Amino acid sequence: MNVMVIGSGGREFAIGRALSKDTAVQKIYFAPGNGATERLGENVAISDYEALAEFAKTQGVDLTIVGPEGPLVEGVVDIFKAHGLTIFGPSKAAARLEGSKVYMKNFLAKYGIPTARYIETDHIKTAYKFIATLGVPVVVKADGLCAGKGVIIAQSHDEAKKAVGEMLSGAAFGDAGRKVVIEEFLDGYELSMFAICDGEEFILLPAAQDHKRLLDGDQGPNTGGMGAYAPTPLVDEVIYEKVKARIIRPTLDGMKAESAPFEGVLFIGLMIVNGEPLTLEFNVRFGDPECEILMPLMQTPASELFYKAATKQLDRLHVSFSKQYAVGVVMASKEYPYANSTPAEIIVDEIHHPEIAQHAHICFAGVGSQDGVLMATGGRVLVCVGLGESIREARDRAYMLCGQVHYAGKKLRTDIAYQAL
Ligand code: AMP
Ligand code: GLY
Predict the structure, then answer these.
(1) What is the pLDDT of residue 241?
(2) Among 139, 155, 218, which residue has the most ligand 1 atoms within 8 Å of its CB, making it the best to mutate?
């Protein structure tokens, strides 16, 4: 089988890495890929989706897997399907679960799926009235995609009103903020769950916990994620069953009823409040760095899993998971998340220690390649992943590997998985 992976980050590297170990896979294309994916396959520099579909056809690509939300929201899946290609990911219509918070909240309300109490509006007076009924903090969300910056946790009613004003006027996020969702603040602990869906059936993956803040102890600004681990002991069978029955099942049934059946990865951001899971957000793709730690826990060959999901055959697939734990530590560049850093050469020591050689690996993300030399070029440069029989063992191996990687301006959190230790 020939497979194409759309995207360029550590998530896409992790999917490519799993495919590269899969005996059913002959050739892997990355569009556009990064400086390290070209070691796993061929990078393709075609950004127009029609042209990319043509390329996939002429190269005999049997399956395409989409990593990031951007191409999904822009309809890459619809374009590939119109060309008769097999592609894993949601249609443009289904991707609105991530692309529009208003759509998502209204969908949850319509199908009785648990979430925070809210209103959606484009009217400032309506917004002010609802804010007055809430305690503090107040959560204000821009409707559209804002690169992870569209959610404000306002500590006072005045701050919430100011945020709403800046969003509705277009000053904060342009058109993405012309509508807002205002909701009550939920006080609990956050988890991410991922379901591989084929429109009807789903496979729920082990729950993961991400570390969004830049600095140790969950301090500093929000980032795309500085590290993650799975499975988390914060989830038991009771919570898994509640998430399946109250959130995932009705979401798949509801999306079908809306004529937008959900195929692809449903990423459920959850807040657990007094043992009850509430939906904070949906994303329509794998998390990054969650994908990097979940891929090595899946024992089913990646091509089979994604192909069956893309062709509505999940009911005929049994996925087995490793009994191990995985911890991923992100190594970022000096100015992340504020600005780009000067490109710097990456040196990885020769790894002699069997502990790291056998139980840890690197997923490359923001890297380029210059005359065969890997350069740190992006904000999140790479993820060191450790596997082990316990979270502690997995974490120790991930950090041992971090110690073998060098580049100017290297930056990482030292407390990944602390909640579980
Ligand atoms: P979202 O993109 O909607 O997941 O929001 C980003 C982050 O804001 C979440 O990961 C939570 O940490 C926080 N958040 C969003 N909505 C709420 C809420 N209703 N209550 C508490 N925290 C929230
Ligand atoms: N790590 C969170 C995300 O990918 O959105």
Answers:
(1) 97
(2) 139
Which residue among 149, 181, 223, 281 is best mutated to probe the pocket of ligand 1, counting the most ligand atoms within 8 A of its Cβ? 281
The total of structural domains in the chain comes to 4
Residue pointed to by tokens 């009103």: 161
Q: Whose CA is nearest to atom 3 of ligand 2?
A: 287
Residue 251 and residue 115: Cα distance in Å, rounded?
A: 13
Domain extent, residue 195, equals: 189-316
pLDDT of 352 > 90? The answer is: no
Decide if 301 contacts 17 (C-beta within 8 A). Answer: no
**Are 275 and 349 in a shared domain?**
no
CATH number at residue 353: 3.90.600.10
- Is there a single domain that holds both residue 245 and residue 308? yes
Per-residue pLDDT, 351: 86
Dist. CA 154 → ligand 1 center (Å): 11
Examine the domain organization and report whether 354 and 330 are in the same domain: yes
Is there a single domain that holds both residue 268 and residue 295? Answer: yes
